[in-house]
Amino acid sequence: MVSNQPPATTPAQPYGEIYDLGYKHYDGKRLGRSHAIRALIVYSIKRGLGIKKKWTAKIIPLILYAIAFIPAFIVAGIKAFVPSDDFTYSYHDLNDFIFLTLFIFAAALGPEMLSDDRRENVLGLYFSRALTRLDYLLAKIAAMGLLLGTIAFGPPLLLFIANVLLADNPITYFFDHIGDLGRIAAYGTLASAYLGAISLAIAAYTNRKGVAGAIFIGGILMITGIANALFQALDSGIGDYIILVDPFDLVVALSAWIWSEPTNMDMADLPGIAYGLAVLATVGLSAVLMYRRYLADE
Amino acid sequence: MTVSDQPIVTTAALTKAYGSVIALDTVDLSIPRSAIGLLGANGAGKSTLIKLLLGLIAPTGGTATMLGMDIRSDVIRIRERVGYMPESDCLPMDVTAADFVGHMAEMSGLPGRDARQRANDVLYQVGVDEERYRLIRGFSTGMKQRVKLAQAIVHDPELVFLDEPTNGMDPQGRDDMLNLINRIHRQLGITVIVSSHLLEDIERVCDYVVMVDRGKLVVNGRINDLMQGGGDVIVRIDGDPQRLVDGLAARQLSARLSGPEVIVAAPDGGVSDAVYDAIRDAVVEMDAPLRMLRGRERSLEDVYIQTVGEMVAAEDVVAANGQ
What is the pTM of this model? Predict the structure, then answer.
C-alpha cells in the first residue's frame, strides 16, 4: 500500500556554511635551518633564471645558455654526420665560448644574488629568522655556483658524451678518456669560482645591480687592457707575472694548462700551477671581502 | 611559576655603544608576556634594543634573555619563535606579496606547501586579499605595512616585534593596523612588542610600557599602574583666571594658566574631594560663574614628560655639582 502521507522530513539542513576561521596557529612541521638554506638556494636560482619575473629577465639566461651549448651541439653534429679526421675541436677550444658565457652570466648573476637584498633592506628580514649571515652567504654562493656550473660543465660534458657515443668502441673510449672528466671538472670549477667570486665580491659592495654588473665587466676589461700594455712595456721577468692578474688571459692559460694545450698567447708561459694558484688567491681575496661585508660585525 | 608568568624578555646592564656614542646604556628590564609598548623619541634607542634582542647586532656589554634563552648563545632557536617587522622599507619590489611572504615562511623552516598556504591565509587576515598576486612595487604604504606584518607572523611566532608599525599610514590605515595588532595579541595570544614614538598608539594597544630616552631606561611597568594617581583638574570661569590662580595658591594648590583655562596640578596624594572643595571656595570667593570643572586623567604623555623631565633635572644637578 502506498501511503498518501508526505514523507517524514528531517530538520532543514543548511546547504553550506562559510566560516571565517580567522588566523590559525600553525601546528605543521618545522624543518629548521637546513630547510631554510635549501629554500634560499632554490629561490635564488629561480631569481637568477628570471623565473616568476617579467619576460625580459629571462632573455639573458636563455641567450647565454644558447651561446654556451650551441657550439657543443654543432661540433657533436659535425662529428656525427660529417666525420672527418681533419676536424679537430678540443675541449680547450670549447672553453673560449664557455669563458665568454661565464663572464657575462657572472656579471648578471652576482648582482642578482646580492644587490637587491641590500638595496631593498631585505637582509634584516633574513637575519631575523632561522638563518645566520654565513648561511645566507653560503646559500647565495651555492646558487651562483650551481647556475655557473650548468654552463661550465654542461657543454663539455655534452661533447664528451658525443665523443663516447660516436667512438668505434664507446666503452673503450670512455675508459681511455675518463681523465677528461676530471679536466672538465677542474676547469669548470676553477673558472666558475674565479668569475663568480669576483662578481659576488663586487655585488656585496654595490647596491645597484646595473652598476655592479658594469663595474665587473668594465673592471675586468680595463685590467686586461692595462695588463697587456704593461706586458708590452716591461721587460720579461716582472712582465711574465702580469698574466696572473689579467683575468682573460689567466683563464685561457688555465684551460691550456689543464688540457695540456699551447696557450697561443703573447704572454709568458709560467708553470701551470701558478695559474691555478692565482685563481685560488683571487677567490680567497673575494671571500675575505665578502666576509668583511657580511660577517665581520656579527 | 608557569610559562605564561615567566618574563618574556629580561636584560641586565645591556649596553650598546657605537664608538663613543652610547645607543643603549646599562638597561635592566623584566618584561611579562603581554602587549608591550616600547616608547621613546626618534633615536632614543628603541630600534637598537630590538636589534640587540634579535641578535642582529651584538651588545657591547651586559646580558639578555628572550623566551628564557640567551640572546647570544641561543640566537637561532630564539629567531625560530620570534617575528620581526622592521621600521624601514624592507620589501622586494618585483615579487608578488604571496610569493614573498611564502618565501619568508620557508626561511623560518616551514615546508614549501605549508609556507604557500600560510602566506595566503595570513595575507588574507591582514587585509591583502586579491592584491597578493600583484607585484609589491605597486602597493600603497598601507598595503606594504600589511605585507610587512604578514611576513612577521606567517610562521606563527610566540613573540613579534613591530617597529613603528603605523609609520607613514593615513588615519584609516593606522586605525586598521592598530586593530590588527590588537587581534594578534588578544585573540591569538601572541606577545607583541610595539615600538613607537606615538603615545596614543601605545595607549591603545598595549598593557605594559617600556620608555627609553637617550639610551636609558626611563619607565618600565603596567600602563594602568603608571596612569594611576590623579591627573590635573581643569577649571574655566567667567572672570579673571589669574585671580583664580592666586586664590588657589592661597589654598596651597598649584595652578597655572593655559589660555582661558586654569590647570590645577594634582597634589601628591591625588585629586581628593578636598581639592574640588578648595576650587569651589576659590571660585565662590571671586563671585565668578563657573563654566567648566573636570578632571583630566593622567596620560602616558604626562608620565613621559614627568619622568623624562625629572631625569633631565637630575642630570643637570649632577653636571652642576661636577663643575
Answer: 0.82
